[in-house]
Amino acid sequence: MSMETEAGVFCRNYHTHTQWCNHGTIDAEETICEAISLGMQELGFSEHAPFPDNRFGRMAFSELINYIGQVRLLQKKYAPYIKIFAGLEIEYFEDDLPYYHQLYRDYGVDYLILGQHYFKDQNSGCYVKTKRIEDEKTIAKYFDSLIYAAQSGLFPMIAHPDYCFGCDLVYTHITEQAICKFLSSISSVNTVLEINANGFRKPTFLSKIGERRKYPADLFWKYVKEYGLWGMIGSDCHHRGQLYDLAVRQAFYFAVEKGIMLKDSIHIGARH
């Protein structure tokens, strides 16, 4: 299927990684050239943001200025051909609220997307690794963390909001209630939910409820459709050729099959 078929749906990508994230293998300029060759209109880089204390082993905090500076140079160089944005993918923790505002205000990032790979248990104060969740009550805490993040107004897009389904659990009404609480809470918030193509690049696995993907999760997107919320395709590319590949097309077909309304862009602008 050609890109023209998805025209307006995937002429822009805001979830893009390069070598700066320490697990990507393509550099930023290569990615821009790939985007131009595909006829894309906008490309946003969204490396995993460092925190000042360098938690989680992302790019070092000392590299942040160089990353943004490189994107700005490429933004000017390729301005006649494509719009380039300097973004970051980052987790939300209430204690770090001043830092997110600083990223917009002092570092000049164009946008932040929420990638809640970790969240904080409000009872214990400990970080929880989302893909290591062991019970449904913790899934509910994960979705609560997404609510707090979305209501902060800092994130125009939530990357892989169904990331928690990478854990192997039998889901009951507890999980369904958590999903519905989350979707109901963000219905008036200006954020879009990403259908993450990288989930289609990962192998399926034999779980307690049968063979399935880690994400996108059918259960989650069933409720997104019921609540009438918007989705958006995100490549989450890390390597050459992934900006628009079979996984991206599969994400598009998934959205069509589930009846998800798709946006083609996110709101980029000051949020501090």
TrEMBL record:
Listed InterPro entries: Histidinol_P_phosphatase_HisJ (IPR010140), PHP_dom (IPR004013), Pol/histidinol_Pase-like (IPR016195)
Keyword Calcium found: no
Catalytic reaction annotation: L-histidinol phosphate + H2O = L-histidinol + phosphate
EC code(s) of this entry: 3.1.3.15
Pfam families: PHP
Pathways involved: Amino-acid biosynthesis; L-histidine biosynthesis; L-histidine from 5-phospho-alpha-D-ribose 1-diphosphate: step 8/9
Keywords of this entry: Amino-acid biosynthesis, Histidine biosynthesis, Hydrolase
Domain PHP residue range list: 14-197
Family stated for the protein in its record: Belongs to the PHP hydrolase family. HisK subfamily.
NCBIfam families: hisJ_fam (TIGR01856)
Protein name (Swiss-Prot/TrEMBL): Histidinol-phosphatase
Native source species: Gemmiger gallinarum
Higher taxonomy: Bacteria, Bacillati, Bacillota, Clostridia, Eubacteriales
